Amino acid sequence: MNMLREALTLYLKLFFLLTPFFVLGTFITLTDGIDGAMRRKLATRITFGAMGVTLSIFFAGSLIMKVFGITVDAFRGGSGVLLMITAINLVFGKESAQHETQPDKLMDMAVVPLATPITAGPATLGTLMVMGTTAEAFEYKMITAIAIILACCSIGLMLAVSDRINKMLGHANISILSKLTGLILSAIAVQMIVVGASNLWQAK
Fold first, then answer.
1. 18 within 8 A of 26, measured Cβ to Cβ
2. Which of 91, 113, 133, 139 is least surrounded, with the fewest CB atoms within 10 Å of its CB?
3. Angle of helix 20-30 versus helix 138-160 axis, rounded to 10
């Protein structure tokens, strides 16, 4: 039961780290006028792109830190700052301008910038790197990896049915949900900054 609760908590945390409603709003804007089949194909490519990047960072994070000589707490604090900036942009930022919506152009944009950095941005990847580095138990790593996959699939499912969500909620309500996501991310960011700064201070 504890493992199931931890998995659910990780899933929810990772889901919001991927800023789902910001991604949804951007996706709806970019795919305006695109048929449903192409939209679902694009959503699938974004899902696998984000999944590949996030899992790679989660499992290879410790190696990257060793190469650059970065401590976990320093990276935690830096990632917290980036996450706070992301949260502020979600709450107060303006919506992205509409880009070229030709199908071939959109498919080229599936991995960059739609999968990363729009879905899996620097703050998200930094958080995953810290999580991967601090996770020592094999079971925890596997639970987190499953949570990452489920979170990415949830984002993909939202994008695949984005036309229905847009009709049901409306663009204005999606924008409100994006701002609420920003509030949740700001709380996660504060916790990361405080823990990182506290550990660095104690290490002196």
1. no
2. 139
3. 30
